[in-house]
Amino acid sequence: MKKSVILIIGALSLVAIIVIGLLFQRAEVYNVTIYVSEIICSGVRVGDDYYDTYFDESANVYRIDNPDNPGSQLTLAYAPGLTVDIIYEVLPFEATNQSVSFSTDPNSFIARVESATGRVFFIDEGTETFTIRANDNSNKSARVRLRAKIPEA
Predict the structure, then answer these.
(1) 27 and 47 housed in the same domain
(2) Considering the entire predicted model, what is its pTM?
(3) Does the pLDDT at position 92 exceed 90?
(4) How many CB atoms lie within 10 A of CB 84?
């Protein structure tokens, strides 16, 4: 009788160890980090106006698409206080950490960008390049080049 009780306890202990191991193994599978594979600048917003962007492969940057001449860069009309919101997408949509940071040359006299939101503040007319960088250590980034000029009278 004692031997059968010991065998039953031993068998149950072994089953418990196997079940616990399977649970931890399964939990490990669901803890997989999915990294950002691509960042796409889909457009920019200037006030209530939305403009699509296109990717300029020769310069490796996104530019505002000119609706009157598709495939060419649109120049924004510069006025004091001009603000532009960069609209972007992170792929894949299932990426564990989809947050990004925006940056530009800190010594620029043309424009500044808010690191967390992508809101651009033009200080003067000219061309400035902004970088969108994934915060998940994937080293993925995209660059956006914006140009603003005082309209000719």
Answers:
(1) no
(2) 0.78
(3) yes
(4) 24
